[in-house]
Amino acid sequence: MGAPGRAEPAGPRGWSRSGSSGLRSGDERGERGYLAGESPLLSPELRGETPPGSACPPRPFPVSPALAMADGCGTGKEPPYPGAAAALRRWEQLRRRAAAPWARGLLAVAAGLGLFYAALRVPLRLRDGLAAVTSSFISGLIFVFEWWHFRKYGTSFIEQVSVSHLRPLIGGVENSPPAPAAFSAGENEANRQNMPECKMWRNPLNLFRGAEYSRYMWVTGKEPLTYYDMNLSAQDHQNFFTCDTDALRPSDTVMQKAWRERNPQARIKAAYQALELNNDCATAYVLLAEEEATTIVDAERYFKQALKAGEMIYRKSQNCHSQSPQHEAQLRRDTNVLVYVKRRLAMCARKLGRIRESVKMMRDLMKEFPLLSMLNIHENLLEALLELQAYADVQAVLAKYDDISLPKSAAICYTAALLKARAVSERFSPETAFKRGLSTAEINAVEAIHRAVEFNPHVPKYLLEMKSLVLPPEHILKRGDSEAVAYAFFHLQHWKRIEGALHLLHCTWEGTFRMIPYPLEKGHLFYPYPSCTETADRELLPTFHEVSVYPQKELPFFIHFTAGLCSFSAMLALLTHQFPELMVVFAKAVLRVLWPVSAPSVLASG
Length: 606
What we know:
This protein is 64% helix and 1% strand. It has helices at 20-35, 65-70, 85-98, 101-153, 157-170, 185-194, 209-220, 227-241, 250-258, 264-277, 282-292, 296-320, 325-351, 355-368, 377-388, 391-401, 410-422, 430-436, 440-455, 459-463, 481-497, 501-508, 512-515, 533-540, 557-578, 580-594, 599-605; strands at 200-202, 475-477. The protein is extended, with a radius of gyration of 38 Å.
């Protein structure tokens, strides 16, 4: 604050540097200044002042510069710019007359007459040129539709129709695959590796619907999950949490219907009905934790109740699982519920900052149920260990699960690359490496990055923040954009924590594509990249996310063909409209060249 009686300098448009009261007073001063013609943004002539170096006396009111020059600064003498007085006076009079109401009315009448004339004349012109522009218009429509179909579905519509419908009608027969023969185990494995895999996997780090997905939708107004993704989750819940003996228990019967409900409120209502029938219904607590809890703390509270009920039911099922196949199926269901609840409790502890407790729960779960490796609990463990910066433990987990016999994932490949990059990234310099060559450790790090990029080429753009992230879906496609989003969403912070790791990735990741020039046909360390990932990722990821496509598709032939046809026909239509006689001569010449015998008769009949 300045001293009393001393005004502080004002900002633009009279804004004061002081608080809200000062801002208000500054606005008032600015408003009075504008009304009085004192704004610093106005010229001296418009404020009625005498500009520096001018012989014109100040005016009591603001005027336009044109009028000031036209009347000699109001003195009746010759204006300061000789020869411009008459032109400036005429311009000023014209401007005033154009602003009059009668002038605006006259302009509106003239515009109406012009439109009326165009309405009478244009149809005649259109009728004359209709034959010329029809082909251009139709080819333009074909081009626009072909481009839209390619952008939406990634294939050419004309090519798809030709191959799928016209080819069988013409008589083309597709080469049928030969009958399967007896292969050895090695050949079977090789053929299985060469087949593109488009299986949907449950995201091991999927978020909570009520506490995370729903909160995102409340804030942004965007739906983070697609219907296809939620439908896959509904199928998973029915497979995990239901069995044939549910009809014997009323609460499980209600929950069996709840997992099939599409409306979230109906599912929550059914869960409360199941709890009224049986207060120890573990699956009801699971549903409430996933969908009704709006915070992780509430979700953890529900999961603890589910754990208490699930352990009791699991012990009962263990005692009688050998009595019948139905009891064995019930034991599998109760095992799935118990594993799911313990895993989600470990994830709650991880999100609430109790990371060591989370790691212990995951290790105990993996020891208790070693056969459930397909649930990929080790990926949860890897992320928690990276948060603890326990890199030796991370390496031990990788040594166990980064095996040739186990399915790979982006978490496995990129975590292995991160650990090898950590050993050299701090001292890595591209200039130095170019001069002296790469060391053994640097070569290992670069090869690990190339291996990871070959497995999933979409991840580096998210790690390097070249593409924006969205919330990961509940299901992912291995080697697809959905897996890349899920990995980068949780692991970007771990790459940033290691100094130089992202710089090393930035310098080396694009070198992978030189080793695999045709990734859809042949891979380097993995089987060829599947061609079905784009379509599946579009179903899994929300519509507001731009799906990453690999490899980048070239425009189909029919896109170029329709674009050329549209441009050529439009040019012909324009030339025919502008130079009809010349185009007739040109058409006759073309017909004579193409059909020298029949051209005269055709032209004569025309």
